Amino acid sequence: MSEHSPRTVVGSGSSVVSPSLTNAPGGQHPHPPGEGAEPAGRASRSEQRRSGFRPDIEGLRAIAVLAVVIYHAGALVVGGGYVGVDVFFVISGFLITTNLYREVETRGRISFGSFYGRRMIRLLPASALVVVATVAASWLWMSPLVAKAVAKDGIAAALYGINVRLAVQGTNYLSAARPPSPLQHFWSLAVEEQFYLIWPLLLVIASGVWLRRRPSRRAAAITLAVLAAGSLALCVWQTQASEPWAYFGIQARAWELAAGALVALAAPRLARLPRIAAELTMWAGLAGVLVAVFVYTDATVFPGYAAVLPVAGAALVIAGGCGPARGVPTVLGTAPLQMFGRLSYSWYLWHWPVLIVGQSIVGHTLSVWLGLGLAFGALLPAWLSMRLIENPIRFRASLRRRPRRGLIIGASLSTVSVGAAGLVGLLPMHLNGSGHATNTATVVADGSAADAAARLSALIATSAQNTAMPANLVPAVTAAGGDLPTDTGCLASLDATSTADAIAAGCDSYGDKTSTTTLVLFGDSHTEQWFDAFNTVARQRHWRLVVLAKSGCTPANALTTKLNTQRAFTECATWRADALRVIASLKPAMVLMSTRTYGGPPVDKDNQLVPGDPDQLWTTALMDTATQVKQTGAQVILMQDTPDPRGASVPDCVAQYTKAVQTCALPASTAVYPSRRVATVAAAQAAAMPVIDPLPWFCTATTCPPIIGNTLVYRDDSHVSATYIRLLTPLLSDALATALH
Hints:
Layout: H1 45-51, H2 55-72, H3 84-107, H4 112-141, H5 144-158, H6 162-171, H7 187-207, H8 217-241, H9 243-248, H10 250-265, H11 267-270, H12 275-295, H13 308-321, H14 327-332, H15 335-362, H16 368-377, H17 379-394, H18 397-401, H19 403-426, H20 440-445, H21 449-463, E1 491-492, H22 500-504, E2 510-511, E3 518-523, H23 525-528, H24 531-541, E4 544-550, H25 570-586, E5 590-594, H26 614-630, E6 635-639, H27 650-656, E7 666-667, H28 668-671, H29 674-686, E8 691-692, E9 703-704, E10 707-708, E11 711-712, H30 722-727, H31 729-739
Parallel strand pairs: 1-4, 3-4, 3-5, 5-6, 6-8
Antiparallel strand pairs: 2-4, 7-9, 10-11
Helix pairs in contact: 2-3, 2-15, 3-7, 3-10, 3-13, 4-5, 4-15, 4-17, 4-19, 5-19, 6-7, 7-8, 7-10, 8-10, 10-13, 12-13, 15-16, 15-17, 24-31, 26-29
InterPro entries: Acyl_transf_3_dom, Acyltransferase_3, SGNH, SGNH_hydro_sf
Pfam family, one: Acyl_transf_3
Organism: Rugosimonospora acidiphila
């Protein structure tokens, strides 16, 4: 199992992993610069106050966006740069609620049409442009398979639902390792807009103005505090239970926007703070934000309790700024920070697509300096889109006076975004190969197993030199993702803690169901990928086949980190114990154990690394489980892992380099984790347990080609295609016979 964090980094020495990441500063100035207010530094503080412009908030935006952009570029000096999302949520909650409650107090109601019209002309011109440009760039410069996925992301982003899409993907083992989308940063805009679908109405109800009485800030604040407390509690719980949903879900992020809204409701009282209290409040808040930015890392369990620090910090900065503080506002009001603050929304929108598409163009992980260059280079399209598109529409008086026009423009822009993304999704992919490669099935099927192995070895050597994708490729790269084993429900989900569902699905009744000789496949998805071959062998030899496999869960007696979380995979430990109980009750003749070699290092219950050599710890844990199985009287057979693309989707790569498929080959030195393999063999020999090594069926001494003969070897960034597994059945049968004698 590999570990995937929802916080994505592009940079030197780091692989690009899934789900992630930033927040758009989606709030609005009560009176932005150029509309009733002079920019910071040109008007006095009192004049800025009267205009409603808060240069300290503009500077706080700048700190947040700089932290996010630098983090995404791979400069991990800001290891917690992802907390910029939390700062932006607080700012947005404050500014939007300030505007809404002013309307409640002065007019006794909220004009929902005006509110949503303003939101649309504020956000959609720039975001629609970025969605369309990114989908087009993905089609031009990224793998066609990736471009199709980006088109779906574009539709989800335009409809403010991409956070749900990312959360679902993050909890699905087979899709959680998808490469980061150049549009996934739109998740935060989705969270904000989902919040603002309900907040204006809730504010009207909570304030009591609908009862034709004077609005009550206290009643609104109490209601909001209860909502925030519930959301925070859910966030803390869900961070442990399902971190992708805690990270991307509105239910676990609403409290951050509510924190800013509570400051807005308390603003009149905060304005009466003594100067020293306001100063200390702002300095404490700024320190909290900076500590989170520089001290947090990808190992920080987030959001959960850890999100309280940047959220509280941002709220304190804004709260202190409601009073007569001068120190922090002076710092935050400096010209460079004001510039980055003004550009923050556009820069946020552009920087991530530039990084992801740029990485695809260069063909490798970006160095820190190249990442920083691209990220700061995104300031140019950000500035152009702000000056030429965003501001002209945003500040157009006729649109601001007539909300219906804003709604019409917003709906039109959303329709254009969805239509453009949908069109790209429907475009045919030109993935025609050239020439007809040797039929791999024929090579392996003819003659004895020894002869087939020799012929396959020769075919692998030839295939390692091939450059073009063959026209008779099977499975096609467009179908590779669905080329799965034919078992039904035997791969338990990440959250499963019992084998009961698998047994109920008939996973104990494959092969020859009437046989009294039982073979158990026990392991993770790298074990389950062999199902079709083992099922055929079991039928041929009249064995009953039982499949006990769980996503991302090694059979080794060790805790690892759960996929897409920062906590120990306790569900795996519970499931493993149940699987061992089932194995003991079955009294099988044979148990084959296998696991992904690149599993995370062992951790303790607090998700801290267990001290010691990881290879030795891993091997000891694997042999501990093997010994427990052997005590049931079963013959234990260990199977080495298949070569691992280690996070790089082979079908995506082949689709992008149809005339240079050797670009997608795996170096044997890194694809097989030699040190752990050697340790496993040594331990197995000492325990008199046979080992099956499939490496010769995939690689030469130096290279593991992505296509062998006419067969695509991998279905994703980790697993072997079911088509290729089935072709290996004769070789597996022979290796299994050798292991049992």
